[in-house]
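Hey team,

Filing this mostly as a record. A colleague (T.K.) asked me to run one chain through the structure pipeline before their review meeting, and I want the input and output archived in the tracker in case anyone asks later how it was produced. No errors, nothing strange. Just documentation.

Input sequence:
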Amino acid sequence: IIKTAKKHNIIFAPIKMSKNIKKQLPAWHNIGAPQNTYHKSKNKCLQETHNVQNIKNLIKCRKRLTRLSGDPLHVPRKTCACSDCKRDKNKGCKNPHYCAQIANEILSKLAPKFNTKSKPKKDDLSLTHHRKEKNNQAHERRTGELLFDPSITIRSNVSEGFRIFTNPEHISLTPAHRLQTPIR
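Output structure:
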């Protein structure tokens, strides 16, 4: 399978992704991360002790750095006694705050297309809720017109982002958007 994928240039090249899809992407060797983002020694605890596998896990690990969602008792020290740090120490982590900083560093280096904090421009390509309902009704009744949904955002499954016969050198790391909304 891998030989065939390489032969036909099958690569993960999504045009635009929802926040939920971005969270499902792998934390390690993410194609949205520049070279030198990952360091074997720094990432070892995140991988083995914290069991970080995807972007969602990195976000969860980073949360303690923000006062809004983290424990208000968290202090930026190795000896922090907040509930999150205690739990991580019980799992075997020597410095949970440092691991949270490493997770934050990795997340901050992700390209805009892969970063959960970046919000792509609203391009009004998706159908309205009312139009989607009309499409569902027409589809169920097998009568009426179906309106084409021009949305380019991947929302349901990561597998929708794979492309065939694609030149890896021409993949953009910024989300696609319509330059200007047409005037009606």
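Quick notes for T.K.: The two ends are 48 Å apart (CA to CA). The chain is about 35% helix and 5% strand.
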